[in-house]
Structure formats: structure tokens, C-alpha cells
Amino acid sequence: MGYRDLREYLDALKRIGKLKVIDREVDKDWEISAVGRVAFQSIPEVERPALMFTNVKGHDVPVVFGILGGSRSIYAKALDTEFENVQQKWSHAQNNPIPPRVVATGPCKENILVGDDIDIFKFPVPTWTVGEDPAPYLTSPFVFTRDPDTGVQNVGTYRVMLKEKNKLGVWVNFVQHARKHVEKYNERNERTPVAIVLGTDPSIGLCSVSRMIYGLDELSVAGGLRGEAVDVVKCETHDLLVPATAEIVIEGFFRPNFLEEEGPFGEYPGYMGPKAMSYVMDITCITHRNKPIYQAFLSQMPPSESSMIRSIGREAGIYKHLVSDLRLPVKDVHLLEAGGAAAYLAISMKKEYEGQVRQVMLAAWSVDPTLGKFCVVVDDDIDIRDQFMLNWAMSWRVQPHKDVFIIEDLPAVRLDPSQAADDVPQLDPSRRVSSKMGIDATRKHKFPPIALPPKDHLEHVRAHWDEYWS
């Protein structure tokens, strides 16, 4: 079974040495972001821990981040498995979802704030890109909405700007499922019920940032991941259902047919995302646990937590489609973190016939056509998670005039700064459509032998390395 809540999961990270607790006083307005950035840049990914700040200046609420995507081993721990089993666990959960279970109440109701007691600034929300972000932002909000026609809920992660103590600006990209919900309410000139959840059992956060088919309740997939239904409770001021063990729940409504300027914000490509005309959420209630824990994601320039999380979840979705659904001979799928887990897609395969490489590319793009501005396919002898090997294959197995092709008029990678100038609005049509480049970096004929010592010689030396290097 999965973790009951965020707290049980944090204890599990502590036990394996993957949670660094920082008790020194830190300033949320600059210091938390800087400490996180130095940690992600200087600590090798395999050794990188999640971070917990217990002494935030002016607040009695701790801040944690890196707990889902600090590293691949942390991501695997969030799923209570080993990393080599992550893709299989995702496939099983999507094929065997477990619907949430409604309960009467839960720890998220221990404190209920309404009216003048509502104040989003009581929580230690960091400023992430100091001097550029116009306000503090929620970076790990799990935003719940519902299709008013089918009643099926959706949860996704979007950027959320703190505007006033009871008012938020929420940017939902034009391809996101929540936007479909809001547009349906807008057609009726009705407010859209919204709940923003902060701090949950890790399976919920992983589903929130992963791309799933429209109409599939992410909480059901979370139940599949954890092997047990997620307990949910009804909100206080509308009927959305939220995780009963959440740390913080922000309830409210999007104003109908109303947009207001929000942004810019430091985004996953490593650049400031432009301003947007975004939804306005009026907060109607905040509930939280006693002594809540505030969860965030470290986003901005890769390497980042948000890119790590997205890469693994998205890789699993593409891998499932290629291997389980289409039975294609694909060995591995990787969205490179340098590309924000969006722009650069690499696939390794054991090619069976001519034309199959392009078939794999087109099938991968069909899963989420915004991903993979560059898609490189290599033979199965290349480790696509080793960027040196990937670039080696690109260098010596490609003839550009024959092995590179471009498809125009496909959905653009979201927030791609090369798409349009910084002053072009988020919803401008020029930001919506772009092109894709496919690169066939497989061998097309007999190659000469690889110039390396025999494999058994290398393995022997590696096994006795200390004898050579002592």
C-alpha cells in the first residue's frame, strides 16, 4: 500500500537519508530559492536529497520541496518501488485505476478559515525568481476542477500568483483539461468551482503533473499507484472532492468570463514565462491541518524538481503507448531535463524494418503533440540517458540530408521562448503552433566495429578498479 499522507512519506525519506532538514533561519523572499538552486546545481543527481526548511522567518510553517522530483531515486521512493519498475507501475495504475473513496471528514478539516480569517499570506510562500516574479507563487498547487457535464474531476498543476489575501491569479494553458472545464462554465456564465490542494500523499502530486487522457480522474490513477483508494472529502463552500489528508486546501471560484493580468514567472525552460491574461480565483475558504507543512516544487532553470517529475511521468506515458499499446520494439524513452522534459525527446529501439523509426516518432508525438520539438531515435545499443552516448550517435549515425525531417503545424512546446517575442501575450495564436524535427540516428547499413576494448575486459577492470587506482 502507498503512503497515508505527506507526513508518512517524509518519514520514509528521512529513513533512507533522502531528506535534508535545514533548521537555520531562512528568508522565504530570497533565501529558500537560492539554497534550492545551489543544491540542485552542485549536488550530483544520484545523491541529491529533498529539502525541508523548519525555521522560516516570520512563519511557523515548514517548507519542503524536492520530495517528488529531487532525483530519480526520490521519485521511485514516492511510488514505493525501485526506479527500474517505475514505468511498469505507471502502466499498471493507468490500466487498473481505483476510484477515490468519499469519507465524512479528515485531517484537512482540522482548521476551517472563512470570511475575514482568510489570508493566503499566512503561509510561507517563497519568491522564486527574485527581481523578476511580481509576487510569490504557488509552484506545487494541485488544482481540482470538474467537468460540469460529466461530473468527472481533473487535477493539474498550474502557476498560481498570490494577488491579495483572498485572491489568486491562475494561468491554465490552452491545452490543459482544466481550461475545457472553465470554458464550459463560462458558456453558462457561471463561476467555476476550484480547489487548490497543497501537500498530499505523493501519488496525487505525481498524477497532477502527468499528462492523462481527458475524462480519466487522476485520483483514480493515484489509487492505482498506491494500491488503495484515495480518501476524499467534500469542500466546505462547493462540492468538489479533495484528499482528506491534505495539508492545506484553498477553496474558491474562478470568476465567469473574466481575465486579469498575471505574471511573468520563472518557468521550466529556464526563462521568464511571459505575462498572461489569467483566471481570477476568489478564495471562499481555507482549511488546513494542525501545524501544516507547505509543499513547493523547485522550478525555473533545469535541473529542477518540476523538470525531473515531468520527465519521468511523461516518459512512462509515451513508453506505455509505444510498447504496450502498439507493440513497437522500443527499449527506452527519455525526455531530457535540459529541455525542460518537453523540448528534446530521445528513443532507443531495435529497428526491424525501414520506415519503423518514423513510425515510432509519429506515435510518440501522438501521445502529447506539444512534446518533442526535437525527437531523436537511436539503436538499442545506445544508453539515451547518457548524453555523451546520445550525442555520439547523433554525430556518427546521421546523414542530415537523408535522416532529418520536419513536420509543420503541430502544437508548440508550451512556454518555448523561441516561439515568439517576450512581449507577445500567452494566448496569442503565434504561440500555439510550431514544427517538429525528427532525427533518425540509427544505423542504416553495416558499420565498422566499435573501437573499444572487449566488453569482458572492461568489466573485469571495473570489478577490480580499486586495485588499479589505490
How do the strands and helices of this protein lay out in sequence?
Layout: H1 6-15, E1 19-22, H2 31-42, E2 50-53, E3 63-65, H3 72-78, H4 86-95, E4 101-102, E5 111-113, E6 137-138, E7 142-146, E8 153-156, E9 159-164, E10 167-171, H5 177-187, E11 192-198, H6 202-208, H7 218-226, E12 231-234, E13 241-243, E14 248-262, E15 265-266, E16 272-273, E17 276-288, E18 294-295, H8 305-325, E19 330-335, E20 344-349, H9 356-367, E21 374-379, H10 387-396, H11 400-403, E22 404-411, E23 433-441, H12 455-463, H13 465-469
Parallel strand pairs: 1-2, 3-18, 4-12, 20-21, 21-23
Antiparallel strand pairs: 2-3, 5-17, 6-9, 7-8, 7-11, 9-10, 10-17, 11-14, 12-13, 14-17, 15-16, 19-20, 22-23
Helix pairs in contact: 4-7, 4-8, 6-7, 8-9
Can you put this structure into words, describing what you see?
The protein has 470 residues and is an alpha+beta fold. Helices cover 27% and strands 26% of the residues. The protein has helices at 6-15, 31-42, 72-78, 86-95, 177-187, 202-208, 218-226, 305-325, 356-367, 387-396, 400-403, 455-463, 465-469; strands at residues 19-22, 50-53, 63-65, 101-102, 111-113, 137-138, 142-146, 153-156, 159-164, 167-171, 192-198, 231-234, 241-243, 248-262, 265-266, 272-273, 276-288, 294-295, 330-335, 344-349, 374-379, 404-411, 433-441. The strands form five sheets. Strands 5, 6, 7, 8, 9, 10, 11, 14 and 17 form a nine-stranded antiparallel β-sheet that branches. Strands 19-20-21-23-22 form a five-stranded mixed β-sheet, with helices on both faces. The mean pLDDT is 94.
